[in-house]
Write a structure and sequence with these properties.
about 110 residues, mainly alpha, globular, 6 helices
């Protein structure tokens, strides 16, 4: 494997483990999402997936794809979550929790 690809996969390792998937699958999903929305950042993609993972059991309409669609339309993650039925406070809290969890997962994967 080339060094750039290995480095890129390592960016997904901790979060992939938290989400119950592989770094390769998460990277492939990111590449596909970037084709659909070239402005999508790695951080937004990770946050969308972590938020969806955390909230979808109680809110089945909150999926990674729904959040990614909101980002593509120019909304923030918080605005998208609010549009999907969360209060502004719950949306803000969910986004902050996801950012914290993603950061912790990355540190763990180190």
């Amino acid at each position: 494997m080339d060094p750039d690809r290995a480095k890129n996969l390592s960016r997904f390792r901790g979060v992939a483990q938290k989400l119950g998937t592989t770094p390769e699958a998460l990277e492939a999903a990111y590449v596909a999402a970037r084709k659909d929305n070239p402005n999508l950042t790695h951080g937004q993609f990770i946050a969308a997936n972590v938020v969806a993972h955390n909230l979808s059991a109680k809110n089945p309409n909150i999926t990674a794809q729904a959040i990614l669609d909101g980002l593509k339309s120019g909304k923030s993650i918080g605005q998208t979550l609010h549009g999907l039925g969360l209060s502004a406070k719950d949306a803000r809290d969910a986004e902050q929790a996801a950012t914290h969890e993603a950061d912790e997962a990355e540190k763990t994967a180190g």
